[in-house]
User: Fold this.
Amino acid sequence: MKYYSTKDAARAYSLEEAVLLGLPKDNGLFMPERIPLVDPAFLSALENMSLVEIASHVAGKWFGDDVPESVIHSMVADAYPFDTPVVSLDDRTHVLELFHGPTLAFKDVGARFMARLMSWFVRGSNRKLTILVATSGDTGSAVASGFFNVENIDVVILYPSGKVSESQEKQLTTWGNNISALEVNGTFDDCQRMVKEAFLDPQLSTTLSLSSANSINIARLVPQSFYYFRAAAQLQKLEKPLSFVVPSGNFGNLTAGIFAKRMGLPIGSFIAATNANDVIPDYLLHGAFHPRTSVSTISNAMDVGNPSNFWRMAALYDDSVAAMRNDISGVRVSEEETRKAMLDCHQRFGYVIDPHGAVGYHAWRATMNQHPDEAGVILETAHPSKFSNVVEETLHLVPEMPQRLAEIGGRRWILYFTGFR
Ligand SMILES: *Cc1c(COP(=O)(O)O)cnc(C)c1O
Assistant:
């Protein structure tokens, strides 16, 4: 399979180039030349398949020309010692828990696969990759966890001093070995600028083989389609079309859902739920894309004013807002609605939802009547204990740390989470 830039359909890239470069030099985004279809037999057997079995089939369809199937299978088996379970709140409201990975957020799913794929591409060579990543918190820890002790790859994380929480800082700085964290006296934007400058520096880029682990790497995006299939597997018995409710920031998660649908998974509709940073709901309403400076909210991992995956979505719908509206509806959720949703979800169902998932919960409860035949699947993108301050303020309870994850990837869980109360 070949990949091309959204800004230049003429030049084709191999999977290895697309993954190791991360971004094409022309400032576009990598897209596949086509979206592979899954086998009909796979869809009919879905109900009994584990996340690893599903990931093996789906990744095989995408990457099978470039990587041997047995290698793909070991990669996914190694990347996913956890599941993405569905918790059914009632007949029509379901939560897809994506936080069972080591850093308690869905970004583990993409980062862990990408790490193994990159490592395979540089295996046995003298090539050593240095991955630079600027983080405002969650991405850095998922990338560090994904690449920890991966051969031939070093990771350097830049994070803004005093702007990440204590627990996030522990998750960034306590790895050692091939992971280094640099505390930058500046903002997240400064960190991002420094990463860009390093890429443009002729001396650095000749002495080090620099790569990016940015969330828009195609190798992080494709794995995020796995759990749409895994959710459908768990809900097949409902015999209802599913509506996926995606709390969104940079729109990688939602783009992966569109991939899953185009691969053949019967998905009813998508609900793009955002906080006040509603550039895409606004686009769906008015048909014009106007990126703007982001504003801070309690669902801070979604505070994105210029969602880069918009250009992939536009490409997938041939630049037609009408076509995009057929599949996706946008809902903007205020801070007050987010907190009310956390309360309502807890009072009504006894379920503690984090502020990001709560944006999705509100969007579904507010619009479920417009989808009378569908069952809603809300993507719960982080464990509530990652945002314990907001949860405590709102629900007056301290979210429990998941004990069953005490040890993953050979590292003791407790080391990273001593910051939690
Ligand atoms: C990154 C993140 C999001 C946003 O996901 P996108 O793919 O950027 O839309 C939502 N919730 C949490 C907890 C995140 O870390």
Observations:
- The first strand starts at residue 3 and ends at 5.
